[in-house]
Amino acid sequence: MDAPIGHFDHATPAPDCLDELTAPVADAVRRWSGSVPAEQIVYVDTDPQWADTAVFVEHYGRELLERSANCVVVAGKRGGESTLAACVVLSTTRVDVNGAVRRQLGARKASFASMDIATGETGMEYGGITPVGLPADWPLLVDSAVVDLPYVLVGSGRRRGKLLVPGKAFAELPGAVVLDRLGI
What is the pLDDT of residue 106? Predict the structure, then answer.
């Protein structure tokens, strides 16, 4: 199969390669529901040595720079309580943690979660965290620019490999809230 975006040697519908995914991501693909069929989620094999964005787009296709998204884990704090959430923004932007995220979570303070918390709570590898397969009770804040794209490149749960996901599918993930200007 040809990848819908980018230039990858191996592209496979995610339901056909569940063993390439971390357990939470594979479980999410198995239980997939919504308007986008699971077969439209595509796993592409990528080499971790090209994981850095600049090197990645040079190797796999320059058009990917404008069609890639980052998924980061944040912690919102208020009155001794902490809420973990994930944010998905285009890779050409950064998450508005102290504005949009803090307001949406009703937190007094918001910051990026530590690597140990992010990996421990998601069951995914750092640098490969994806919104597909996150804990269902987490808020998932998605920038509207991500939802508007036909396909978006995101992590696969591992440093090796990526997922190509139709943008509108992000709005249908558990806990998803679509926000304008989450990425600034």
Answer: 95
- Measured torsion, CA atoms of residues 164, 69, 166, 156, in degrees rounded to the nearest 10: 40
Q: Do 106 and 183 contact (CB within 8 A), yes or no?
A: no
C-beta of residue 163 within 8 angstroms of C-beta of residue 155: yes
Work out the burial of residue 112: count CB atoms within 10 Å of its CB; fewer than 13 is exposed, 13-18 middle, 19 or more buried.
middle
- Whose tokens are 């094999």? That residue is 45
Could you tell me which of 179, 113, 174 has the C-alpha nearest to residue 144?
A: 179
Distance of CA 173 to the CA centre of its chain: 11
Contact 143, 182 (CB under 8 A): yes
Distance CA 97, CA 103 (A): 9
C-alpha 134: how far from chain center: 9
Q: What pLDDT, in 10s, does the model give residues 23-82?
A: 999 999 999 998 999 999 999 999 888 877 778 888 899 999 999 999 999 999 999 899
Q: Please compute the mean of the pLDDT values over residues 168-181 and round it to a whole number.
A: 97
For 79-181, where are the E strands, in sequence order? 81-90, 109-112, 140-143, 152-155, 162-165, 176-179
- pLDDT value at residue 5: 96
pLDDT at 48: 83
Residue 68 burial (10 A CB sphere; 0-12, 13-18, 19+): buried
